[in-house]
Amino acid sequence: MTVIKQQPNRRLYIDSLRAMTPGQRVQKAFELSDLTHDLLNAGIAARYPEKSEQERHTVYLERLERCRKHGC
């Protein structure tokens, strides 16, 4: 049985990307990348409040490496 994910805003999203210039799309990619890193850091800080900033940074780097290896 195949489950089809509903994506009601996909057409709107694609249309908005097509309306952007190449430079705007690159800028949006950087913004989304920064947001992803910020969310990862926030999640690590919430999960490990007892760890030092350096220890949380080490966890952050380990998570990034795991995602690079396994395609998170």
How would you characterize this protein structure?
It is a single chain. The protein is an all-alpha fold. It has a domain at 31-72. The chain has helices at residues 10-19, 22-47, 53-70. The longest helix is centred in the middle third of the chain and has 26 residues, at 22-47.
Mean pLDDT: 92
| Biggest beta-sheet profile | none
Q: Structural class of the helices, strands and pairings?
A: mainly alpha
Cα-atom radius of gyration: 17 Å
SSE ordering: HHH
Strand content: under 5%
Distance between the termini: 25 Å
Approximate shape? elongated
Percent range for helical residues? over 70%
Count up the helices: 3
Flag low-confidence runs: none
Question: How many beta strands in the DSSP annotation?
Answer: 0
Q: Can I get a quick summary?
A:
The chain is mainly alpha-helical and 72 residues long. Helices cover 75% and strands 0% of the residues. It has a domain at 31-72.
Short key terms for the protein model shown above:
mainly alpha, 3 helices, 75% helix, 72 residues
Fold blueprint:
Layout (H helix, E strand, L loop, with lengths): L9 H10 L2 H26 L5 H18 L2
Helix pairs in contact: 2-3
